[in-house]
Amino acid sequence: MHAYRSHNCAQLSAQNVGETVRLSGWVHRKRDFGGVLFVDLRDHFGITQIVADEDSPALAVLDKLRAESVVTIDGEVKARSAETVNPKLATGEIEVFARAITVQSAAEELPLPVADELEYPEHIRLKYRFLDLRRETMHRNIMLRSQVITSLRKRMTEQGFTEFQTPILTASSPEGARDFLVPSRMHPNNFYALPQAPQMFKQMLMVSGFDRYFQIAPCFRDEDLRADRSLEFYQLDFEMSFVTQEDVFQALEPVLAGTFEEFSGGFDVTPSGEFPRIPYAEAIMKYGTDKPDLRNPLIISDVTSHFEQSGFGLFEKIVGGGGVVRVVPAPNTADKSRKFFDDMNNWARSEGFAGLGYVTRKGGEFGGPIAKNHGPERMEELYNELGLGPDDGLFFAAGKEKDAAKLAGAARTQVGEQLELIEQGCFKFCWIVDFPMFEYDEEAKKIDFSHNPFSMPQGEMEALETMDPLDIKAWQYDIVCNGYELSSGAIRNHKPEIMYKAFEIAGYDNSTVDKEFGGMIEAFKLGAPPHGGSAPGIDRIVMLLAGEEAIREVIAFPMNQKGEDLMMGAPSKATPAQLRELALRLVEQPKKEG
Q1: Whole-angstrom distance, CA of residue 399 vs CA of residue 321
Q2: What values do phi and psi take at 466, rounded to 5?
Q3: Smallest Cα–Cα separation from 275: which of 261, 254, 260, 297?
Q4: Which DSSP category does 5 fall into?
Q5: Which stretches does DSSP call E strand in 387-545?
Q6: Which of 85, 237, 52, 90 is CA-nearest to residue 156?
Q7: What ranges make up the beta strands (E) of 393-457?
Q8: Bridging pattern class, strands 94-105 and 70-79
Q9: Which end of the chain is more exposed for a tag (fewer CB within 10 A), N or C?
């Protein structure tokens, strides 16, 4: 017999009754019934119930062991009585009577429980992550992650993509988030950078003549953390040659739709070929964000024209000053008290907004200061235009266009959640398209790129030479699912003359472009195919499929929100010897007050 096991802890069934077996695993849970000890033995695969009574030489040993001790059990498989069968376990029809035990590792007192998945402080969970990962939910999430990555790889390969690896040590990028810098011992006073994304390299692969590239790429960005963002993350990075935007969509949709269908647990998934394409301007207008959650049925409307002349002086003043008024319906709220509407206003203030106006309506009667001052006839006209009923409320966001859109978008989400309007049991995808190529930077008082400077402008050189820059759209797109941006992507600008012109509009001369992006420009001057791609985030995909709200729950060894690895003690101080070898001297940081 094998030194540690003849079967795993999910393998035995009624067919094994009478066999002598050997199992190894962790003591998951113990139950003492006065001389008879029941132990749930757990391994990677599942749980088997072990029984030790006064006739078992294992009883005294098991009785003294703490939970999470590792043991090897030799014993006989017995059938459970009909009333004790556990249908929730794969091994629920049997139990193993312990004839012998070997303690492989005795556990000390645990800093957090494993068997009972109680809420525990995050710093404890992260410091003892190896224990946290033994918990059923975390174990399942990490296995799901592996299975999702395997599925994505298979689907990409089946579509003719080839997996390549790109460098981890590379040059610093002047665009995007902050780089992580790595000092070079062989080149004192010089630094490598960890890649924010394999962007330049994957484009160079297309210039090199490869046609369809992908990799499960590690990426690093030194930026503030939040629930759906980490210092290091993985993405399904891909690029394609001789493609239009539509070709990219047709390549990615079946990969995402198929993967979500495979692992969604029966949730409805937007089918491949049916992902809505929503222009950026329409998304901002209807949803207040370029990451719309289409499970929410509420639609934002612009009612600015109704308040150009109004008895409600505040809105009239805002509109007269070039502002806008946006509204979010609150259907069937006649039974809601005034407190519901006041709480929404207080919520808006807590989020940093000036406030959220509202109108109530019950049985056709309007209520609230806006309705009182605007007048019932004008309110009736506005409601008819919006198609609202006699028991529907309405929330108002007024101000500068960007501010009003942001508040309306946040209010749309809040109202949807408060009224339980968000559709459950589904994954709704959409593409956001037609992003503006440029925007006006109010602080710098100049035109700058709105997002990705390397996207091909729609209309190419003619658009750059003849159109108002703020009207130019880019061949740029985002893929969004349930309100989460999974990735941005673009058809790339592969023509040097168009790149120079685009940067000129944003205030950069040719020498600056050559200095910052010389490698790419030179490659493009030697024959570059039209190409484009995208890079959906693996962590966010698995987070959605696992039903979690933070990517830390689907990463084996994540950092905390301060960017600290509490288990391994990173980041840490370098020794004087290490600093000398790297020709580095530390600069003492000023002490923070308070």
Answers
A1: 9
A2: -120, -20
A3: 254
A4: -
A5: 393-399, 426-427, 429-433, 438-441, 446-449, 476-481, 484-491, 531-534
A6: 237
A7: 393-399, 426-427, 429-433, 438-441, 446-449
A8: antiparallel
A9: C
Cβ neighbours around 21 below 10 Å, total: 19
Structure tokens at 431: 């593409």
Q: Which of 496, 497, 503 is nearest to 523 (CA)?
A: 496
Mean pLDDT (whole number) for 22-31: 97
Residue type, 424: Q
Instruction: Look up residue 563 and give its DSSP letter.
Output: S
Contact 490, 455 (CB under 8 A): yes
Rounded distance, CA 539 to CA 216, Å?
11
φ, ψ (nearest 5 deg) of residue 382:
-65, -45
Structure tokens at 304: 């600015």
Sole residue written with tokens 């030179």: 522
Measuring CA to CA, how many Å separate 366 from each of 70, 334, 384, 398?
A: 68, 10, 13, 20
Q: State how far the Cα of 104 lies from the Cα of 41, in Å rounded to an integer.
A: 13
- The backbone torsions φ and ψ at residue 580, rounded to the nearest 5 degrees and listed phi first, read -65, -40
429 CB neighbour count, 10 Å cutoff: 22
Q: How far is CA 20 from CA 65, 77, 95, 96, 99, in A?
A: 23, 6, 12, 9, 9
Q: Which residue, chain included where needed, has tokens 């303690």?
A: 103
| 371 alpha carbon, distance to own chain's centre | 40
What DSSP character marks residue 590? P
427 has which bridge partners? 269
569's CB contacts (< 8 A; 6+ apart) are none
C-alpha atoms less than 13 angstroms from C-alpha of 357 in its C-beta half-sphere? 20
Token pair in block for residue 358: 């509202």
**For the chain, what is the total number of helices (H) and then of strands (E)?**
17, 24
Helix, strand or coil, per DSSP, at residue 484 = strand
Q: Which two tokens stand for residue 189?
A: 């006073």
Q: What's the pLDDT score for residue 446? A: 92
pLDDT in tens, 448-488: 999 889 999 999 999 999 999 999 999 999 999 999 999 99
Q: At what angle do helices 136-158 and 538-546 cross, to 10 degrees?
A: 130
Burial of 206 (0-12, 13-18, 19+ CB in 10 A): buried
pLDDT digits (tens, 9 = 90+) for 517-568: 888 899 999 999 999 999 999 999 999 999 999 999 999 999 998 999 999 9
